[in-house]
């Protein structure tokens, strides 16, 4: 890991560590899920949020927000695909969550895989 990657990772971990509980634990869990799902992604701060990109100098693909609700979002950079089914041409781009159970963890991993592929 390059020193820039290490610095960026440190900044993401610091950002998460400053969050109040129980959000801090949930966000740390989501960070771990993202890094396990796609270990080649590079954590970094993107517009003040923890984010994940293909390289330290490339745009973020996925962000985590800690606002009124916790949020996992796909940035505008990856290719979007219509959802199909009942959602037709709508393109999912953000998901809110308050906790992470087994199903949510799997779904987060699937979302992350979808933006990297």
Helix content class: 25-40%
Order of neighbouring strands in the sheet with most strands: 1-2-3-4-5
What proportion of the residues form beta strands (DSSP E)?
Answer: 15-25%
Main sheet makeup:
5 strands, antiparallel
What is the averaged pLDDT score? 92
Structure, explained:
- This protein is an alpha+beta fold.
- It has one domain (3-116): Aspartate Aminotransferase, domain 1 (Alpha-Beta Complex), CATH 3.90.1150.
- Helix content is 38%, strand content 22%.
- It has 3 helices and 5 strands.
- A hairpin with a 6-residue loop joins strand 2 (49-53) and strand 3.
- The longest helix has 15 residues, at 3-17.
- It is globular, with a radius of gyration of 14 Å.
- It starts with a helix and ends with a helix.
Keywords:
single chain, globular, 117 residues, alpha+beta, five-stranded antiparallel β-sheet, 38% helix, Aspartate Aminotransferase, domain 1
What's this entry about, in short?
By secondary structure, this protein is α+β, with helices and mostly antiparallel strands. It has helices spanning 3-17, 23-37, 102-116, and strands spanning 42-46, 49-53, 60-66, 70-74, 94-97. The chain has one domain (3-116): Aspartate Aminotransferase, domain 1 (Alpha-Beta Complex), CATH 3.90.1150.
SSE inventory with pairings:
Elements lengths: L2 H15 L5 H15 L4 E5 L2 E5 L6 E7 L3 E5 L19 E4 L4 H15 L1
Antiparallel strand pairs: 1-2, 2-3, 3-4, 4-5
Helix pairs in contact: 2-3
């Amino acid at each position: 890991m390059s020193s820039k990657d290490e610095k960026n990772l440190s900044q993401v971990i610091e950002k998460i560590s400053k969050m109040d509980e129980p959000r801090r634990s949930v966000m740390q869990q989501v960070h771990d899920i993202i890094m396990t799902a796609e270990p080649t992604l590079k954590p970094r701060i993107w517009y003040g949020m923890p984010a994940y990109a293909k390289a330290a100098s490339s745009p973020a693909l996925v962000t985590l927000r800690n606002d009124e609700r916790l949020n996992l979002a796909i940035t505008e950079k990856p290719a979007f695909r219509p959802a199909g089914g009942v959602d037709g041409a709508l393109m999912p781009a953000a998901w809110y969550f308050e906790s992470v159970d087994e199903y949510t963890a799997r779904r987060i991993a699937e979302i992350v895989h979808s933006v990297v592929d």
